[in-house]
């Protein structure tokens, strides 16, 4: 989560990232205009959760599910992950990526390059048969082109992708599952049942 001070009041939110602080301040201002008591605002923000938005599922290793399905959301995901890396508490980043075919996924892959991932596992969601997906082979091709140091694998089944990625993790590594909200949701369901 994130702690911040606004107008001399300390708040805690469960979400990570500077952009979430801005969202929380907007919620604070709206709540004040609605005359919601200050204590209720503090409590409400503390209890609020945003599944699939930089949601931490495991701490050692740090496993995050994130439905960053457009360039703006992906940039906040990259910024939040970079902040974690700058803290010095974490080792390498590993990615599981899947994208809907109608999104600007090649640009989102390029945004992820700055994380310098040790490994990338491309996959697809299997829960929405009506949504076209970016083919894992195409995701892998683009990752190999732009992330030359990363070990790149592909799996058609998200469960197999998760199993493979978890085998490479060390205790202080980060596993970021992102790209498609369908994929992140599908893997979240598996992880919350497994952990």
Helix and strand sequence: EEHHEEHEHEHEHEH
Q: Spans of 5+ residues with little confidence (pLDDT < 50)? A: none
Range of helix content:
40-55%
| Physical arrangement of strands within the biggest beta sheet | 3-4-8-5-6-7
Strand percent estimate? 15-25%
Radius of gyration: 18 Å
Count up the helices: 7
Number of strands: 8
Structural class: alpha/beta
pLDDT averaged over residues: 92
> Given the C-alpha coordinates, what overall shape results?
globular
What's the main sheet like?
6 strands, mixed
Distance between the termini: 20 Å
Task: Please supply descriptive tags for the structure shown above.
8 strands; about 200 residues; six-stranded mixed beta sheet; single chain; globular; about 45% helix; alpha/beta
């Amino acid at each position: 989560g994130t702690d911040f001070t606004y107008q001399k009041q300390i708040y805690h939110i469960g979400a990570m990232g500077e952009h979430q602080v801005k969202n929380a301040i907007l919620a604070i201002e709206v709540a004040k205009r609605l005359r919601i008591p200050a204590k209720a605002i503090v409590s409400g923000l503390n209890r609020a959760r945003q599944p699939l938005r930089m949601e931490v599922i495991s701490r050692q290793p740090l496993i995050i599910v994130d439905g960053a399905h457009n360039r703006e959301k992906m940039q906040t995901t990259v910024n939040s992950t970079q902040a974690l890396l700058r803290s010095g508490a974490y080792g390498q980043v590993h990615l599981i990526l899947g994208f809907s075919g109608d999104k600007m996924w090649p640009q989102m892959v390029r945004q992820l390059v700055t994380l310098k991932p040790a490994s990338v596992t491309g996959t697809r969601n299997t829960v929405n048969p009506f949504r076209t997906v970016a083919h894992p082979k195409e995701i892998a091709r683009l990752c190999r082109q732009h992330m030359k140091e990363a070990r790149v694998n592909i799996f058609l089944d998200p469960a197999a992708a998760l199993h493979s990625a978890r085998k490479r993790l060390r205790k202080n590594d980060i596993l970021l599952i992102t790209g498609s909200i369908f994929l992140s949701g599908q893997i979240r369901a598996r992880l919350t049942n497994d952990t």
